[in-house]
Design a protein that fits this description.
Elements lengths: L31 H74 L2 E19 L2 E11 L7 E6 L4 E5 L9 E9 L3 E20 L1
Antiparallel strand pairs: 1-6, 2-5, 2-6, 3-4, 3-6
Length: 203
């Protein structure tokens, strides 16, 4: 067996070189250091892979969230637009309803109509409120005294008459007043073919 240190040829089975005394037994290579290096390298690779996967996962999440935001914003805008339209429609409906109620509840309504012919007078009691009196008459012929007058206990009055040179034709008049109490009116007419007086209340 040849010595690895001095090259002396020793007999087989010897454990030490008879020339230099070196050990003739083969020492197995140390594998512990290599194994530790391999394990460390594998750990490093695994850590790098985990980091890379985490990085890509975070990027994907952020991209998906940024893509979702405009959709949510669009949905919010649509909902807001729909709400404003509904609100606008409700407001328009309420306005129309109030307007119609106002129009319906406030108008001139007849509370009494009187007519006749010839000459004479009538006494009428008119209730309180905003009152309009409309009157018209047609004379028999021109006597310069033909007339129709309506006068109230509150001093309100109106009427028509014809002078000696007036045309024989229908004439009309009207007046309006407001009173918190009922009023008494006298209708006086003279030499008429026809006359008419109407009382209306704003309600």
């Amino acid at each position: 067996m040849k010595c690895k240190e001095c090259g002396f040829e020793n007999r087989k089975g010897g454990k030490f070189c008879t020339s230099c005394g070196s050990s003739l037994e083969e020492v197995p290579p140390k594998s512990g250091g290599n194994s530790k290096g391999i394990i460390i390298a594998l750990i490093v690779i695994i850590v790098l892979l985990v980091c890379a996967i985490g990085f890509f996962a975070l990027n994907n999440n952020s991209n998906s969230q940024s893509n979702d935001v405009p959709q949510q914003s669009t949905e919010s805008q649509e909902i807001g637009s729909a709400s404003s339209q509904v609100s606008s429609s409700d407001d328009d409906a309420k306005t129309q309803e109030v307007s119609s109620q106002t129009t319906e509840s406030k108008s001139w309504e007849s509370i009494g109509s009187y007519s006749g012919s010839g000459s004479g007078s009538k006494t009428i009691t008119v209730p309180e409120g905003k009152i309009k009196v409309k009157l018209s008459a047609y004379p028999i012929k021109n006597y310069a005294t033909n007339h129709l007058t309506v006068s109230g206990s509150n001093g309100e009055s109106g009427g028509v008459d014809w002078g000696s040179k007036s045309a024989v034709e229908t004439r009309s008049d009207s007046f309006t007043y407001t009173s918190d109490t009922s009023e008494t009116f006298t209708i006086d007419y003279y030499e008429t073919v026809s006359w008419e007086v109407e009382f209306l209340r704003y309600q």
